[in-house]
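From the shared-data thread, chain only:
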Amino acid sequence: MPELLSGKTALILGVANRWSLAYAIARAFKREGANLILTYQGDRQKLTVEELGAELGASQVLACDVSQDSELDNLATTLKEQKTVLNAVVHSIAFANREDLNNSYLQTPRAGYALAQDVSSYSLVAVARATAPLMAPKEEGGGSIMTLTFLGSVRVVQNYNVMGVAKAALEAGVRYLASDLGPSNIRVNAISAGVVKTASARAIKGLSKVLEATPIAPLRRNTAPAEVADTAVFLASDLGRGVTGNIIYVDASFHVMGLASE
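Structure, as tokens:
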């Protein structure tokens, strides 16, 4: 079976631990022959991501706090100086204060709203602006930028609150970026993953109840990280060359359901 990403270089932002969706995506990319570049945020994450990078065979592990333009500039400069050509960028980053997730959306303070939007939504714009010039030329296939989202962007999910609003902005951003970058043959998409027990998901109070509800999905089960990762492979590969500006649901199709029948 051919390696779908052989000869391609992928920059993956957001690998935090072995339970993160970014880690699952990195593993799938490596399986398909991609050269991996990982990033970490701050010294606290450095050792963990370096260990994971070594395990995955990543060629580089670089510092990048997406909330700091200077660090994005440094990342882009480093890659440019190395004459790195990117074929795929994975943005798997989101954050909101725990109290803003637990409290009602009505109680969201201005600062908490701004923080969630900055890290979870605007950072995709900043990442795309920094990495688009490093992507392969249009005639050589351009590139693929993808991000991770969730059903709480279009449905009310209990205790998702300000993050749901941030994800809605993220999804709108995907469409506008797809339009802006389309002439360069750079595709921008989002994967709306089902509920997976990641470290960040555990910050959502009542997650176990959501997991109990998702088996009413058409496939009658929850989502596996590997399913999300394989969709990311598709988007990064030449098989996804005609797909851009889309929100692709990988949630056992839970999003199509209304009232449960059982």
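The mean pLDDT is 92.
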